[in-house]
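Methods — Computational structure assignment.
A single polypeptide chain was analysed. Its primary sequence is given first, followed by the predicted tertiary structure written as structure tokens.
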Amino acid sequence: MQTETFRHVMPLQIRFNDVDKFGHVNNTIYFQFYDTAKTDYFSTVCEGVDWERVAIVVVHIESDFLAQVKADSHIAARTRVSHIGHKSFRLEQDVIDVDTKEVKCRCSSVMVLYDLHKQQAIPLPEQWARSIREYDNVVDEK
């Protein structure tokens, strides 16, 4: 992951059912946290997202679980785009402890924009790509 800071930070609420018998957030829940944060990221950064016409889909995802999150933790998800290609882009996210800034889990995914009517991947609209480049200071992959 890049060493620059994340601009998009979203506080997360830990729900009762997120915590397992060991008293920590179950590892499957982190992907729900990441989904919530990426939806907010695109709604914030990219104007005019029409979720009825397009989907942003994961084609590859990997995650590193670094430290436990307990039920009473105060956490947030940080999200940024690190690279933009023709039809794909790399999304980096992590979950941090808001109080200590410790990274609890780190995720990297490759995403594509998908036209729900045509049932195919499509290029990122130039307006979105420009907004992402400006927001996250992204250098395109060529």
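Note: The longest strand covers residues 103-115.
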